[in-house]
Fold this sequence. Notes:
The structure holds two protein chains of two kinds. By secondary structure, chain A is mainly α.
Amino acid sequence: MTEQALTQNALLMTATNEDALEAAVREHATLVYRIAYSVSRNHYDAEDATQETFLRVLRYRRKLEGVDDPKTWIARIAWRVAVEQAKKRPAVSLSQTKAQNAAAEIRAGGKTAEEVAASNQMAIILESLIATLPESLRDAMRLSTVEELLPAEIAGVLETSEASVRSRLFRARQILKEKLKALEVNHGTKR
Amino acid sequence: MGLSDRDQFDELLDGALRHYGEVAPRAGLEGRVLARLAASPSPLRIRWAWVAVVTAVVVILSVWIGTSRRGAYRQNVAVKLAPGQTTPHTPTSPGQQTLSSPRFHPQRSRPSATVALAPEPALKQFPSPRPMSEQELMLVEYVEHYPKEAMLIAKEQDEFQKKVEQAQKEAAEDSMSAQ
């Protein structure tokens, strides 16, 4: 365990003290929010999930005594909360047509690769393509888009090995690349 | 599609995924979360609430059990003490006695349905004779010591009762004639 993790753990272990909980909120709120957003793709739902995550942290803080990595522990709670909320709500998946329309707009736009990558159309295409991935690949891919999480931490959240996470990410990327090729989004982009 | 295409798609995917994950919450998220945490009841308060609820349930249950047992006990005693009957009911056959008699279920606090449905005891006098209360005993003692006074009081009371009845009768007749 790193010194930072030890300090953080000690901080959260004394969470009967309100300052410690406040520190945890200030340090991890954005991470929790991004994890929730990676699942819901909706700001309101992500904020609800963030609130619920910290309520659970408050409720189960006694369990922290045996926790090695508080960041992963909180991230796992956030992931579970977000997945639970997503199951409760009706699934709103982007249609294939929307992805194709977005790809057509990119082809017609004449943007640079960087502009394409940052465009709303590309976000629509990615959301649609990630949603069609098999569940295990999709979970790993969604968490990998949260920049604060390393593969080892994603493994901790999904309760699997780091090697498994890397393998899933590799396969997910292969599939996404193939689908991007099929949509011909590189046509019309400036080099 | 050549090697350059593969590289191009890798770059495109990397860039797209990086932007895909770049999301920022609305300003003041931490403040809103902390406000919600402050508004939520503390675990200590929740624990005390649970203790209070469990205690209340235990008290209610024990009172209910105690009341129902006392009622059953009274019923049982009333059946057992009924004059003219030594047992709760007379079995017609030895097999029936084994099945229905409460003597064979000493662990039960409530009398069985058979006991409750037992035939009424045949009483020689109704209502059944009871020992006199303290007030009744004092009245008897007074009558024994002062018979004349007791007689006068009884006569006065009798006359008063007659007057009351007469007044009630007249009032009833008046109301009938008024209608």
